[in-house]
Fold this sequence. Notes:
The protein is α/β, with parallel strands linked by helices. Helix content is 31%, strand content 20%. The strands form two sheets. It has an eight-stranded mixed sheet. A six-stranded mixed sheet has the order 8-7-6-9-11-10, with helices on one face. β4 (90-93) and β5 (102-106) form a beta hairpin. α2 (43-54) runs parallel beside α10 (282-298).
Amino acid sequence: MRENDLVTSATRQPETPPATTPPRLIATDLDGTLLRDDKSVSPRTVAALAAAEEAGIEVFFVTGRPARWMDVVSEHVHGHGLAICGNGAAVVDLHGGPGAHRFVKVRELARDNALDAVRLLREAAPGTMYAVEQTYGFYQEPEYPKMHMEIPDSLAPAEELLAPDAPGAGEPVLKILAFHPTLDPDAFLTLARLAIGDRANVTRSSPSALLEISGPDVSKASTLALCCAERGISHDEVVAFGDMPNDVEMLTWAGRSYAMGNAHPDVVAAASGQTVANNEDGVAVVIEQLIAERVQSSN
């Protein structure tokens, strides 16, 4: 992503949408949003999350990360312990602490759809390399670059990794990762969406040409909507935060939404408000404003 594509907190102060229905749930992305660039959760943000829950506002972490990467926020969940992972492919209970996460909802990518997506994107963008995320496994092609925290469980062409007799064939596929070494990230996303069509949902959260391919109706927004419906929470009662294209649908769906100061231009266009950058605790800034609004309205 080019530097001039970013909205920085040095040039823009937080902008608050008009107050509407009092919020009952905060939905926040992690990387580039709640987390600072060093992947830490600042003391100010921890305090803001605790204050939100003390005020009766539930907090959901909504991320492209797989469940096994959720240890970074496990100590900050303050009792609710739920996260939407894999861009909506799974809802995970974090109450058990690091290494004890429990899947409470899985929205898998059917293997036939996954194979179709791999084939169609190979034809449209030769040189694409793949990895496969499953509930408890991570597999990749030999050429796929080392971009993630763990060593893959197996190395093989994607078509073999998705075969009926593949390692981990009994576990659901959550998403396919597709990387291209030379294409522009936004151009690759557009190309992939055109090539794959309704066989799968394609998005991206990385500044590189790394795409994330999920089930046809699976997104952060659709899974968040399901979780809210189960709780009797309307979209007007949700405040959402994000920074990358995989957050756009969620930000559009929520009653109030904020693009981070470091957000992609598509996110800025989709959100109803803006806050400062992740490194300046932009999520905490807004939560503090929400708590102040609630105190004022009760006086």
